[in-house]
């Protein structure tokens, strides 16, 4: 750089000192000014940090183990089933004169209009009891077949309260036979003569008790809980109430203790008829819910179905009081069962899930709230796993309990989305499913990914909303596996969501991957095979399948994939041909929605028949297992 010119040097001498002097004077002022402003900013930042700090602490302090899926409704007051009625019920107090009259065949001498003889046949039967009564040991009450017949006639024909009371005592003795609770004595020594009489008293009381109660009280078969609560104004209720309570308690005890499945099922069936009377006995109602849930989860198939019908009736009759109790405790029992799978657990889990969905569908308003809370909990746990990659959170996501919970709400939404506004739940559960599918992408999680895609297909079919699952399916083609290992069992036989590593080297693992791809894409394409945009939907999947077919060396897989490609391409040509013949514009939404609807109803299209064969084959494979 050259020297400054004369004018420049003159200007610098004249002005430079003053400029520097002015800068020196302003520097302390600017420092003080900006220092105050910076101090204010620092103070504001500290206040903001103090405000945000509690929120950050809450997020940091929350741990995966604190999010418990099956405890999501624990704060609900109606969820508890503690307490209930005790088992220490005794025998009803009988009229000794009536008991002796039955034994001696002289009931007609009792000064009670209810005990009057109305037919000659009954009179003959009573006279026959005289000889039998002489052989009875007076210290014990032994129920003979003829005495039982007499009591049954009195109940059937005369609605005798005393006869019904005696029968209920014998019925209680039969239900508690061999299982008398500690501390309960049997002062009257109720015994039954033989097994035939034993069976008759149990069957008669189960079949006739409810009808007898209603006849004595003068009420109809269609009575509701409000009318039962008003029975306290009925003068006959005071004498009948202990009988009803004794019958229900004895039947519940029989259900708990009987080893024969048919007896339990029959008792539950008859108990359902008298459920409305439980309005007068809230403790017994809670106890029956608890017993029914235990049988629903752990019982044999027929018993489990009957127990569910009891719970369903309770939730309908006592909706305001008991629906939440039934739903919450059934939900917990279902997840607990899924968390500890047993033999044939897949079939049992499906039944428990379907019955729980059926119960939820009875009261959509309450069920919607519960479903929203549960799905939010699932999303919360998934978000934690996605952001932190915490090992505990990841294990919870691919646990049986988590997937069973998702499966439950998927089926609930699919069953009711056409009749109710469940779009918010649908959106959230789809986000959860997509998150789970993308969180676990390795071949060891093949079954989990297949399950996620099946859920999306199910929701798409039920809601008629397109869900892009093709990319999730086709990613399974990229699993790098070897076929050098020994042949293993079918993949569906694995009880865990995560496959063992040695299974990845099995000979049939790649086959299962491809068969799963074909089956899932078949379901997806079948839903949209008559849609006007099917050619665009199927183009990329067909390209990727064709590339895979060129790479693979297994001839069996090549044939399966090639046939699928041919069927899809035939359907593409069919839809394109119909599109060219269409006279409406793509902007005509109404015409677009009705496109090929007639062909869809006929179910004669080649791809539809191919899809049905694929599904039939898949069902046949599952039945063999």
Which secondary structure elements does this structure contain, and how are they paired or packed?
Elements: H1 6-61, H2 96-104, H3 120-134, E1 141-143, H4 145-158, H5 161-175, E2 190-192, H6 195-217, H7 225-229, H8 237-257, H9 261-273, H10 282-298, H11 301-317, H12 319-339, H13 345-360, H14 364-388, H15 391-397, H16 400-416, H17 423-439, H18 446-463, H19 470-474, H20 509-528, H21 534-551, H22 555-581, H23 589-593, H24 597-602, H25 606-624
Parallel strand pairs: 1-2
Q: How would you summarize what this structure contains?
A:
It holds the Pfam family Noc2. This protein is mainly alpha-helical and 625 residues long.
Number of separate strands: 2
Structural category is mainly alpha
Overall form: elongated
Summarize the main sheet.
Answer: 2 strands, parallel
Poorly predicted ranges (pLDDT <50, ≥5 residues)? 51-61, 106-122, 125-139, 484-495
Strand content: under 5%
Helix content: 55-70%
| Average of the residue pLDDT scores | 76
Order of helices and strands: HHHEHHEHHHHHHHHHHHHHHHHHHHH
Question: Can you tell me about this structure?
Answer:
- This protein has 625 residues and is mainly alpha-helical.
- Among the domains are: 96-280, no CATH class; 476-492 and 502-625, no CATH class.
- It is built from 25 helices and two strands.
- A two-stranded parallel ribbon has the order 1-2.
- The longest helix has 56 residues, at 6-61.
- The radius of gyration is 38 Å and the shape is elongated.
- Mean pLDDT is 76; it is low at 51-61, 106-122, 125-139 and 484-495.
What are the salient characteristics of this protein?
Noc2, single chain, mainly alpha, Nucleolar complex protein 2-like protein, two-stranded parallel sheet, 625 residues
């Amino acid at each position: 750089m050259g020297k400054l010119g004369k004018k420049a040097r003159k200007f610098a001498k004249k002005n430079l000192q003053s400029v520097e002097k002015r800068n020196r004077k302003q520097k302390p002022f600017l420092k003080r000014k900006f220092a105050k402003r910076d101090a204010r900013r620092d103070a504001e930042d500290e206040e903001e940090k103090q405000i945000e700090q509690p929120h950050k602490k809450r997020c940091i302090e929350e741990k995966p183990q604190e999010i418990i899926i099956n405890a999501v409704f624990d704060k609900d007051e109606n969820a508890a089933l503690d307490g209930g009625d005790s088992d220490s019920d005794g025998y009803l107090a009988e009229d000794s004169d009536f008991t002796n009259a039955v034994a001696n065949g002289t009931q007609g001498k009792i000064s009670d209009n209810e005990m009057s003889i109305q037919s000659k046949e009954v009179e003959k039967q009573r006279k026959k009891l005289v000889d039998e009564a002489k052989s009875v040991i007076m210290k014990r009450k032994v129920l003979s077949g003829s005495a039982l017949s007499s009591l049954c006639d009195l109940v059937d024909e005369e609605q005798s309260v005393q006869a019904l009371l005696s029968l209920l005592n014998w019925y209680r003795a039969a239900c508690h036979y061999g299982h008398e609770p500690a501390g309960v004595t049997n002062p009257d020594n109720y015994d039954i003569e033989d097994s035939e009489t034993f069976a008759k008293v149990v069957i008669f009381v189960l079949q006739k008790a409810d009808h007898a109660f209603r006849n004595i009280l003068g009420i109809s078969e269609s009575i509701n809980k409000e009318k039962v609560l008003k029975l306290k104004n009925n003068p006959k209720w005071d004498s009948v109430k202990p009988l009803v309570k004794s019958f229900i308690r004895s039947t519940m005890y029989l259900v708990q203790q009987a080893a024969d499945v048919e007896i339990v099922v029959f008792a539950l069936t008859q108990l359902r008829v008298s459920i409305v009377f439980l309005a007068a006995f809230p403790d017994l109602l809670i106890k029956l819910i608890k017993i029914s849930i235990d049988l629903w989860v752990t019982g044999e198939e027929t018993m489990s179905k009957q127990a569910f019908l009891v719970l369903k009736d309770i939730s309908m009759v006592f909706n305001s009081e008991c629906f939440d109790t039934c739903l919450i405790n059934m939900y917990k029992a279902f997840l607990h069962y899924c968390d500890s799978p047993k033999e044939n657990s897949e079939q049992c889990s499906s039944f428990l899930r379907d019955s729980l969905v059926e119960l939820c569908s009875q009261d959509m308003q309450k069920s919607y709230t519960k479903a929203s809370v549960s799905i939010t909990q699932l999303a919360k746990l998934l978000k934690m796993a996605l952001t932190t990659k915490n090992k505990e959170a990841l294990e919870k996501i691919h646990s049986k309990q988590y997937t069973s919970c998702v499966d439950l709400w998927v089926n609930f939404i699919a069953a009711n989305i056409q009749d109710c506004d469940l779009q918010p739940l649908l959106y959230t559960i789809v986000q959860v499913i997509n998150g789970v599918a993308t969180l676990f992408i390795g071949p060891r999680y093949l079954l989990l990914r297949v399950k996620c895609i099946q859920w999306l297909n199910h929701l798409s079919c039920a809601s008629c909303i397109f869900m892009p699952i093709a990319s999730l399916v086709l990613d399974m083609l990229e699993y790098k596996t070897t076929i050098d290992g020994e042949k293993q069992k079918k993949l569906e036989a694995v009880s865990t969501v995560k496959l063992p590593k040695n299974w990845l080297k099995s000979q049939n693992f790649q086959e299962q991957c491809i068969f799963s791809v074909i089956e899932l894409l078949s379901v997806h394409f079948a839903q949209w095979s008559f849609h006007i945009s099917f050619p665009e939907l199927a183009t990329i999947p067909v390209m990727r399948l064709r590339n895979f077919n060129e790479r693979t060396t297994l001839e069996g897989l090549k044939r399966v994939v090639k046939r699928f490609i041919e069927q899809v391409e035939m359907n593409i040509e069919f839809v394109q041909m119909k599109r060219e013949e269409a006279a409406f514009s793509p902007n005509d939404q109404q015409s677009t929605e009705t496109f090929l609807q007639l062909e869809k109803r006929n179910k004669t299209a080649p791809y539809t028949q191919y899809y049905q064969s694929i599904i039939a084959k898949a069902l046949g494979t599952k039945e063999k297992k």
